[in-house]
Amino acid sequence: GAVVSQHPSWVICKSGTSVKIECRSLDFQATTMFWYRQFPKKSLMLMATSNEGSKATYEQGVEKDKFLINHASLTLSTLTVTSAHPEDSSFYICSAGGSNSPLHFGNGTRLTVT
Amino acid sequence: DQQVKQNSPSLSVQEGRISILNCDYTNSMFDYFLWYKKYPAEGPTFLISISSIKDKNEDGRFTVFLNKSAKHLSLHIVPSQPGDSAVYFCAASDPMNTGFQKLVFGTGTRLLVSP
Q1: A104 interaction partners in chain B (CB closer than 8 Å)
Q2: Rg (CA), chain A
Q3: Is B42 an 8 Å CB contact of chain A?
Q4: What gap in Å lies between CA A31 and CA A54, rounded to an integer?
């Protein structure tokens, strides 16, 4: 069964609104979770590393004020796309893993901004 | 700068035959490599991994080969089955510097296994 749960699986929002995506580790504690973005027919691009109890670490070129990450507990990280625009439409995926195990991925969230 | 490359965007194989998916990397600090399988609108599913101290790792129908000097790895699936049809991503990490779990992904290869 799934060990990483991501919600919602798809969302449509209007331009200018904010959208929150949740990522939960179901049967393990994750001090670190990762957020990826995938454009059509492209690779998964790491956006940021979510650290429990501290600030997220963003990759170069990713706007931290646009993509707010909160990792308030050992089983939950959230990504909020603020003031969404059509160019933010994409497939967002989170991942988490135990300390020495391969990452497990959520099923992703398809965001469409109209 | 694409540090992990999968130069074949697609591959078609007949059922029962071997599928060979290739991956090249440029960062010599990469020390741990993984293959993931992905269906549309789903997250990637872990298949198999290999660390740089090995040159081969086998799990059932899946075998990963690593050639460190060539900075090349490959995934062999034998025998291939129609259910293997998916996009396969190669990924790498640099455990010593950026951590075991921070993965860099290739662009993926779409495998189609026909009956």
Answers
A1: 46
A2: 13
A3: yes
A4: 10
Helix (H) or strand (E) holding A25: strand A19-25
- Minimal Cβ distance to B43: which of A45, A46, A108: A108
Closest Cβ opposite residue B41 in set A41, A95, A110: A110
The token pair at B110 is 């779409």
Task: Indicate yes or no: CB of B103 within 8 angstroms of CB of A34.
Answer: yes
**Chain segment B13-62, per-residue pLDDT in tens:** 999 999 999 999 999 999 999 999 999 888 899 999 999 999 999 999 99
The percent of residues in chain A predicted with pLDDT above 90, rounded, is 68
**B72 in Cβ contact with B13 (< 8 Å):** no
Instruction: Check A32 against B46: CB less than 8 A apart.
Output: no
Q: Chain B partners of A44 at a C-beta cutoff of 8 Å?
A: 44, 89, 105
Mean of the per-residue pLDDT values of chain B:
93
What residues does A91 pair with on adjacent strands? A38, A110
CA distances from B34 to A28, A29, B45 (A): 21, 22, 11
